[in-house]
Amino acid sequence: MADPLRIEAGDLEADAILEAIEEGRHVVVTTTTLGDEHEVTLRYDGSVYYCDTPTRLHRHESAREMRTCIRNMGYGTAPVGDDT
């Protein structure tokens, strides 16, 4: 397995994160919640997308669901000019 891609929340667009995990990389996102720094691992097993947080494992059945999660949680951004 390739080395994980380590980023800060908001560094990449959601589509770039999706591309990396669909290529088999784990993406480790450093995020700050209530003043505490946490790492979230985003990954894909070929059929299901996962967000491993310190407290939960989120599962997403489609790239669209995963993209929405990445944007809503602030892990990745929308393309410039995309307000969806």
UniProtKB/TrEMBL annotation:
InterPro entries: DUF8001. It comes from the Archaea. Residues 1-77 form the DUF8001 domain. This is DUF8001 domain-containing protein. It comes from Natronococcus jeotgali DSM 18795. The lineage of its organism: Archaea, Methanobacteriati, Methanobacteriota, Stenosarchaea group, Halobacteria.
